[in-house]
Amino acid sequence: MTVPSVPVAQVPAEAAMLDVREANEWDAGHAPGARHLPMSELTARLGEVPADDPLYVVCRSGGRSAQVVQYLVAQGHPAVNVEGGMQGWAAQGRPVVAEGGAAPAIV
């Protein structure tokens, strides 16, 4: 199965984003407005997956999010992988925020 994907440059500014990284990664730096649901908790919390169409899914580099997109699409969710993940997001100069007012970083 081919995973639906888009480069960071094609993600709209107000896109519905789901960040599937772990809590420490999220806390260090994430896209403003993104929702957090770690990949490790996805199946148990499937009911919390936003119903946005499309739902842009992101991780650190694109690998975990591709797996999540494949799973979500199989479940009927209109999900799209963000190629390059948050590393690509930050490299493109897209905004990144951190929890607690710390300087944002992609870890």
TrEMBL record:
Q: Which domain of life is it from?
A: Bacteria
Show where the Rhodanese domain sits: 11-98
User: Entry's InterPro entries?
Assistant: GlpE_sulfurtransferase (IPR050229), Rhodanese-like_dom (IPR001763), Rhodanese-like_dom_sf (IPR036873)
Protein name, UniProt field: Rhodanese-like domain-containing protein
Listed transmembrane segments: none
The protein's matches in Pfam families, at most eight in alphabetical order, are given as: Rhodanese
